[in-house]
Specification:
Structural class: alpha/beta
Distance between the termini: 14 Å
Order of helices and strands: HEHEEEEHEHEHE
Number of helices: 5
Strand order of the largest sheet: 5-2-1-6-7-8
């Protein structure tokens, strides 16, 4: 495919949540999650623009099962903004689990966007909190910079990658998810469902 300098400038690699707690040995490990690291490192060399997202929860976050006595991880409860899957405590700000994987090359990132830091609301998407209304500011940043073609990689395909891709499409961005550089949790068929939903929304699978 022939690519002009202008179209290259419009591309951004959006690296979703490649953090210790989502990798093997972490509190909410995605199977083979660490396998994406060398792939993402190679990809990042091909992009002029790289952005990272980082899950960044406070202690006692309401998405943690431990914050709801009697509840267990993967149970679903209703919060003010709707249904919420409860998770093990993970990516607590300042902890080793919240740090990026040590082998991930982060030095070329021009923006690190932290999400999920408000105690009362979770944030899967890089664009909106889980109420689907409160913006993170990423869309404005991308538009201000003229970055309209998003290539998504990271963890987990069926949660934060999916929600980010769907929101990006809803906001009018061109979106490609690079399958080799993603891994999913695949809870009760959630991975296949995520791909079907993304493709139906106009996300390109690469």
């Amino acid at each position: 495919m022939k690519t002009t300098a202008m179209s290259l400038d419009e591309r951004v690699l959006l690296i979703i949540d490649v953090q210790n707690d989502f990798c093997p040995g972490g509190a909410l490990a995605v199977p083979q999650g660490d396998e994406v690291v060398p792939v993402i490192n190679r990809l990042s060399e091909q992009f002029a623009h790289v952005i990272l997202t980082q899950d960044w929860h406070c202690p006692g976050h309401w998405s943690f099962a431990s914050s709801h006595p009697g509840k267990q991880p993967l149970q679903v409860i209703d919060l003010a903004y709707g249904p919420q899957v409860l998770w093990p405590d993970h990516c607590v700000r300042g902890s080793r689990g919240a740090e990026f994987h040590s082998d991930l090359h982060v030095e070329r990132a021009e923006l690190i966007l932290r999400k999920g830091y408000r105690r009362e609301i979770d944030s899967y998407s890089a664009f909106f909190e889980n109420d689907r209304r409160t913006p993170t500011g990423l869309a404005g940043y991308l538009r201000e910079r003229g970055l309209s073609r998003l290539f998504l990689v990271g963890l987990a395909t069926d949660y934060c990658v999916k929600y980010s891709a769907l929101d990006a499409r809803r906001l009018g961005f061109e979106v490609t998810v690079i399958e080799e550089a993603c891994r999913g949790l695949d809870v009760q068929g959630s991975l296949a469902a995520a791909w079907a939903e993304m493709l139906a929304a106009g996300v390109t699978q690469a």
